[in-house]
Specification:
- It contains eleven helices and 25 strands.
- It is of the alpha/beta class and about 425 residues long.
- Strands 5-2-1-9-21-20 form a six-stranded mixed β-sheet, with helices on one face. It has a four-stranded parallel β-sheet with strand order 13-12-11-17.
- Helix 4 packs antiparallel against helix 5.
- The structure holds flavin-adenine dinucleotide.
- Flavin-adenine dinucleotide (FAD) binds next to helix 1, strand 2, helix 2, helix 6 and helix 9.
């Protein structure tokens, strides 16, 4: 049984093809989501259906896989069964937990409502609605102070998601929206990126993170470094000595692992990630593997394996191989060995930074490579063509086709 059809779980399924195993894949959603482009759905550049695909149809050719949509709420280790939210249970021989992570608010869960994070399609469409609604309300606002607050966007966290969101909101305001509004000048939009550490894109070499900061500042983004957020209230965020009034605040700072460690009653790190063995099994339970964002594992140099898609894919592939070996009665594989293939981040619609380790790229060339890599990793020809065409439109005509404000329940976004 595999729980979670994200990058880790899906790659395990993929690499178990042809193994003498009956696979049950359980996910609480009916779709696999390409999270690296989620910020583009949140900023109206891409439609949700371009970055998510029904799991069932992705695996329709795999007769060895049963796909179930259900939320797992626990694991009964003694009975070897996962417990589902509807009160039923499903038995397993071997279990792979690949349930990912959510946002973490460093003990300030009350901030979640005021500064939502980006993790699911629902998060992306809600943030898209909030951003677009702010412009709509600003168009009708007569009080200049309140109008400026509506045209102000604060992004908390200067990692790749924060950088990509900040750059794309700036592009949206400066390139896409100006001709569509009459009362407001969307060039007055203020985008503030707040990072507690001394640089953005922590983990990238200093020259690339400096380049990213300057590129963002050229797009009009205010980059504020070195002060953690200490308070978030409706319409305002405080960090260090500063308080910025912004009607829209987005959280891109911390992550918290899924509760898989609690289900198993096993040791976890401060972010709730399971401390797995070097072969990615749960301590004391060789029949349970855990992979992806829900685990903490070390790279060969002792550094933590980053919570990124290639790591989850490599772990899924490794675990599939380990299971194949067991089924064939072959000796166990050596410990999991993570290979870092590179780090990529887009800055606005024409620039990116890439660190392959052996070569560093920046600017337009990096953007083209970033675009090609992301199109390559999408699922299916239709999505690839559609995303490529959309980006061409954004690049050449500044148009973003997914500028829809939608609300659950269908009520109007404007009170
Ligand atoms: C906004 C954003 C941008 C990112 N950008 C990049 C990037 O540019 N490059 C990069 O490499 N990585 C990026 N990442 C990180 C990358 O997406 C993750 O590292 C990767 O998705 C982890 O894979 P996973 O399989 O562990 O978890 P996920 O892909 O999150 O999949 C977990 C799955 O488990 C399911 N699940 C969770 N709980 C339950 C439950 N209780 N019951 C049933 N199912 C459950 C979920 O529905 C989900 O389908 C980004 C992440 C985010 C959120």
């Amino acid at each position: 049984m595999i729980v979670g059809a994200g990058f880790g779980g899906l790659w395990a399924v993929k690499h178990l093809k042809g193994a003498p195993a009956d696979i049950t894949l359980v996910d609480q959603r009916n779709h696999h989501l390409f999270q690296p482009l989620l910020y583009q759905a949140a900023t109206a550049s891409l439609a949700p259906s371009e970055i998510a695909w029904p799991i069932r149809s992705m695996l329709h050719g795999r007769k060895d896989v049963t796909t179930l949509m259900a939320a797992v709420v626990g694991v009964d280790i003694a009975a070897r069964a996962v417990r589902l939210a509807d009160g039923t249970a499903i038995a397993y021989d071997t279990l792979i937990l690949a349930t990912g992570a959510r946002h973490g608010y460093f003990g300030h869960d009350e901030w979640e409502k005021l500064a939502p994070g980006l993790k699911t399609i629902e998060d992306a469409t809600a943030i898209r609605g909030t951003i677009l609604t702010a412009f709509e309300q600003a168009e009708r606002e007569t009080d200049p102070k309140r109008q400026q607050a509506l045209l102000s966007f604060a992004i908390v966290g200067g990692g790749p998601t924060g950088v990509e969101l900040a750059g794309t909101i700036a592009d949206l305001a400066h390139d896409t929206l100006p001709r569509d509004f009459r009362a407001i000048d969307t060039h007055r939009t203020r985008v503030v990126l707040i990072e507690a550490g001394p640089k953005i894109l922590n983990g990238y070499p200093d020259d690339l993170s400096d380049y990213a900061r300057h590129a963002l500042e050229k797009l009009g983004v205010e980059v504020c470094l070195g002060a953690p957020v200490t308070q978030i209230e409706p319409g305002a965020v405080t960090f260090g000595e500063r308080r910025v009034e912004a009607e829209t605040i987005v959280w891109a700072a911390g992550v918290r692992a899924s509760p898989a460690a609690e289900w198993l009653g096993t040791t976890a790190d401060r972010s709730g990630r399971i401390l797995v063995e070097p072969d990615l099994t749960v301590p004391g339970h060789p029949e349970i593997f855990a992979i992806g964002d829900t685990v903490a594992v070390k790279a060969p140099d002792g550094s933590p394996v980053p919570g990124i898609a290639p790591a989850a894919k490599q772990e899924g592939t490794y675990v599939a191989d380990a299971i194949r070996r067991r089924l064939a009665g072959r000796p166990a594989a050596p410990a999991f060995h993570y290979h870092h293939q590179g780090s990529l981040a887009q800055i606005g619609k024409r620039k990116a930074v890439i660190d392959f380790g052996w070569i560093r790229l920046r600017g337009a060339i990096a953007w083209w490579l970033w675009g090609i890599a992301h199109i390559y990793f999408l699922v299916g020809v239709r999505s690839r063509l559609s995303v490529a065409l959309n980006w061409l439109w954004v690049y050449t005509r500044n148009q973003r086709g997914a500028r829809l404000i939608t609300r659950a329940g269908g009520e109007s976004a404007i009170e």
